[in-house]
Amino acid sequence: MTLEQNVVEQCAQLLYAAEQEVREVPRITDDHPQMNVADAYRIQERLRELKQAQGLRIVGMKMGLTSHAKMQQMGVDTPIYGFLAEDNAVPDGGVVEVKHLIHPKVEAEIAFVMREPLSGPDCDAAKVLAATDFVLAAIELIDSRYENFRFDLPSVIADNTSASRYVLGSRATAVAGLDLETLGVVLERNGQVVEVGAGAAVLGNPAQAVAMLVNMLAARGQTLPAGSVVLSGAITAAIPVAAGDNVQVRADGIGTVSMRFV
Ligand code: 0L1
Ligand code: MG
Asked: I need a labelling partner for 233 at 20 to 30 A (CA). Which of 9, 83, 198, 251 fits?
């Protein structure tokens, strides 16, 4: 049985308020254990409508749980997706005030900017590369609205996959000639290397993660519009950040990107 519309509405309102008011809430499946993945995407879609009603433009999408390690940890075999609203964007080198966040963590990613729209259900990495305008080094800041980052799969999908902020680097790079699988990434906090990784950590190839996003959207009757920014998934583990921290990602051949916390 699918979740009743009034429960979808209540859950979306709860998660919307939690983000606006910077407060943690218990995971929503504690009260609604029957919630499934399809219900969770309905809640996420309602959250998206609430942001659009606030006047915010949706600028792109993100993939989450794209590493096999993270999927195993959650006991799932499929990544998840969320949306990016215009107020999630932070300029390269920009400052974020931690008072607006609950328990922020950052992870290194590769962002795609799409020149052409894409639709599933048979999208693949080659189609993604052909439709890509350029890629950029990126930092995603995740900030689950749940107490102690404690959630299960439906709860985290409903919470827009913990999306909070993202920063794109300044060097837009064409994909031709780039090997996204071996592309190395270093995540530094306050000048110290804390995580390293390569593009292959993201489902074998970040373009594959974008293809999976397109096919997952198709399953819900949706497409990826031209001009979308897509965060393809974490190459590194997510690390906690606090006021005073300076975070930088250096990515082979596609430049650097940074953000600061006060
Ligand atoms: O972007 C991500 O991979 C995060 C997905 C949600 C899980 C989490 O908050 O760790
Ligand atoms: Mg991420």
From this structure: 9
